Every structure is written in C-alpha cells, then in structure tokens.
Design the sequence.
C-alpha cells in the first residue's frame, strides 16, 4: 500500500480540478508545485488591494453550461466583458474585428460596405485557400487590418513570421459585422469576484499541498509515494527531451504601481505595432471595477523560450505537433501516469477547456 492514491504534479487548474474530484471520491492526493503558490497561471496577487493577474490577463469564458455552473459553484463571477482596444502607432481601434473597427479604418457604416471592402482586398491578394496565419488573416479581414492590427502583434508574440504560423491561432478571434466589441462569442463570461485564487483554494481544501517542490529534483522518491501520477508539467521534460525538445513561447511580465486612479480606461490595450516590444498593457483594477487612488499595470513582453524558462504557450505548428504525437505514443504506454493540462497535452487550451479536459480524465479514471 502506497501513502497516496495520486501524486499530482502542478497546482494549476488541471491539477486542482483533478485533486478536488479525486478527494470527493475519497482518494488520497498529494499535489506539488515548483512555484511557491497554487493556481498555476491563473494565480492572482493582491497589490494595493487589487487582484493582479500575475501571469497575464485571465478572462473566463465558455459556452458550456456545465463548466459555467461548475466554476460558479466555487465563486461568484462578475459581469466583466472583455473589450480590449488596439493601439497602432497612437491610433485606437476596437477589438475584436467588428463594425466599430471597420468604421474607424475605412469610414464604412454598413455591414455590406465593410464586407465589400474586405472582399476587394482579399481578391487583390490572390489568396484562394489560406495556408498559414497571414493568408488566413487576409482572407478574413483584408490587408489593411492585417498590416495594422495583426502582423506586428503576431510576429512579436510568436517570434516568427506569420507565414510560418498555423491559421487556427487567428481563428480564435471573432470577426463580426455588428457593432459589438465583445472579444468572445461564448455565452458565459466573467471574472471571479475576489480573484481566481478563491477557486483553487476551495478545490484544494483537504488536499495535501507541497509548494516549491520540483518533481524532477526528486522524481524517483516522489513516484514511489503514490499509486498513480497526474503530470501537468511539460511532457518532453518528463521524458528528458529524449525525442527532442518541443518549442514554447515565453513571456516576461513587468508590473508597476502608478499613482493614478485610471491609467488607460480599459483592462487590456494591445500594442499592435512591431516596434513596441510588449504586446499588451493590462490595468487590473478594471477586471473588477476597482476604485481607489492607485492603479497597477502590467506590460507583457513575449520572449524566446529555452530550457529552464517558463513555457507559457505551446507552438502548435506541424513540426511540433508531429513531435508531440511521438511523445503521446510514449505516454500511451504508461500504466500509472496521466498527462494533462496545457503543458502535459501540449495544447493551446483556455481555462474552460482545461477544466473540461480534467473532468473528462476524472470520468475515465473513476
Ligand atoms: P498551469 O496553470 O501552467 O499549471 C501547471 C503547473 O505545473 C504550474 O503551476 C507549474 O509551476 C507546475 N509545474 C510544471 N512543471 C513542474 C514540475 N516539474 N514540478 C512541479 N510543478 C511543476 N485562458 C482563458 O480561458 N482566458 C484567458 O484570458 C487566458 N489568458 C491567458 C493569458 C496568458 C498570458 C497565458 C499564458 C494563458 C492564458 N490562458 C487563458 C490560458 C490559461 O492560463 C490555461 O488554460 C490554464 O491556466 C492552464 O492550466 P494548467 O493547469 O494546464 O497549467
Ligand atoms: N492577435 C493579433 N492582434 C491582436 C490580438 C491578437 O494579431 O490585437 C492574434 C495574435 O496572433 C494572437 C492571436 O491573435 O496570438 C490570438 O489572440 P488571443 O487574444 O486569443 O491570444 P492570447 O490571449 O491567448 O495570448
């Protein structure tokens, strides 16, 4: 008999959801994280009484009533609707791409006129079947928007040309012929009142947690403690990169407290020109309609990833997806290891998808 039923590596949303459900079923879990806090990338830190999204803006959105009810069972969500703006060389545009954007850019007033403008630019580009992000973007919104709002942002975010990136990345953003600045199409959206930590803390009530504990520093001993391991770190690191390293994008966050009540008037401003080194500035108080004399902003700088850096985004192009399939094959032979989450499954998952995937894993497991 081992001391635990499950050793869960990673106290992010995947690990915490699994731990919560396993604990409810009477399973004994130990959850570890190499960071000194729980929550993974949804972790918030309170500064000046404002919940700071320590690892970038996190807006919860889903069309699944099941997932919405699930997260609302831990905390109440506010009515926040993400409506970021884009700043291109001082010109301001609404996002996602919608009638407000088209009107500002071309002076068009009707959906018909906007569609005609896009069609004209698409035809001029000669693209018939889009093969990469650049071609997909031009097909969807034309060359003007591609040049001002997509190319620079995308190339600094991903550190490669938009012609080398998969189309699906740009399809995350809605294109709308209505005057609607809601960044998401999902039915439900909001920010947990009081921040994301509340969800994770509630999920981990009654579960043993060891922080500042890196699985790889003590792998053999840790594995012996439990019948099974749920691993939400990097799958290629788990196998000591034996088939080669998958590629990730990293980020650097620069947080700053400002002696001003309202810095930018909105939670998220995207800086879409290539020359500005950060992609976005987040002003956290707007996520929760905060008041007060001070504000906290975060500049988000994309950066190359090398072994040892924080892997924020998987780079899901063909080359990496093929390599991941090989790791997946290795993983499928494991009897006692379950891989999950953004890093374990090497997928550009949003929060609702991570929770959904964790609940599916739970269903299979119990
Ligand atoms: P993580 O949160 O990364 O958790 C994995 C944990 O494992 C980490 O805490 C890590 O420290 C730990 N770990 C890794 N290796 C080891 C090891 N060897 N030993 C011990 N511990 C280890 N989603 C949305 O739905 N809406 C958004 O607006 C949104 N914005 C985002 C913005 C940014 C900048 C980023 C990077 C992501 C965003 N996401 C958003 C996605 C969201 O963060 C993820 O879907 C979710 O947090 C993934 O949860 P996870 O548990 O898979 O991974
Ligand atoms: N994107 C862009 N301009 C913007 C916002 C997004 O070109 O102003 C592109 C960019 O390639 C980005 C992708 O759309 O990586 C997806 O954007 P999203 O906001 O979903 O990115 P995330 O929040 O996951 O970083």
Sequence:
């Amino acid at each position: 008999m081992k001391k635990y039923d499950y050793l869960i590596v990673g106290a992010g949303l995947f690990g915490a959801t699994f731990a919560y459900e396993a604990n409810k079923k009477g399973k004994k879990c130990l959850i570890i994280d190499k960071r000194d806090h729980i929550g993974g990338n949804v972790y918030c830190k309170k500064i000046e009484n404002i919940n700071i999204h320590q690892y970038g803006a996190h807006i919860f959105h889903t069309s699944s009533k099941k997932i919405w009810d699930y997260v609302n069972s831990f905390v109440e969500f506010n009515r926040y609707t993400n409506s970021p703006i884009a700043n291109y060389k001082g010109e301001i545009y609404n996002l996602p791409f919608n009638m407000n954007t088209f009107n500002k850019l071309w002076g068009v007033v009707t959906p018909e006129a906007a569609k005609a403008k896009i069609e004209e630019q698409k035809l001029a580009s000669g693209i018939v079947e889009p093969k990469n992000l650049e071609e997909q973007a031009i097909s969807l919104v034309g060359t003007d928007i591609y040049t001002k709002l997509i190319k620079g942002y995308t190339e600094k975010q991903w550190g490669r040309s938009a012609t080398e990136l998969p189309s699906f990345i740009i399809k995350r953003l809605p294109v709308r012929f209505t005057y609607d600045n809601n960044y998401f199409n999902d039915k439900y959206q909001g920010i947990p009142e009081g921040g994301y930590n509340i969800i994770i803390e509630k999920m981990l009530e009654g579960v043993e947690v060891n922080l500042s504990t890196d699985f790889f520093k003590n792998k053999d001993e840790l594995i012996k403690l439990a019948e099974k391991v749920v691993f939400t770190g990097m799958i290629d690191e788990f196998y000591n990169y034996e088939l080669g390293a998958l590629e990730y994008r990293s980020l650097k966050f620069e947080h700053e407290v400002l002696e001003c009540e309202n810095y930018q008037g909105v939670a998220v401003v995207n800086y879409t020109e290539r020359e500005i080194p950060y992609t976005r500035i987040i002003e956290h108080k707007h996520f929760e309609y905060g008041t007060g004399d001070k504000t906290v902003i975060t500049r988000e700088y994309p950066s190359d990833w090398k072994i040892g850096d924080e892997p924020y985004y998987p780079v899901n192009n063909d080359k990496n997806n093929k390599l991941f399939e090989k790791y997946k094959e290795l993983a499928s032979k494991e009897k006692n290891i379950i891989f999950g989450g953004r890093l374990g499954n090497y997928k550009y998952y949003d929060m609702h998808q991570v929770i959904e995937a964790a609940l599916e894993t739970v269903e299979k497991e119990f």
About this structure: Residues 4-79+188-245+315-365 form a domain with the Rossmann fold fold (CATH 3.40.50.720). The mean pLDDT is 98.
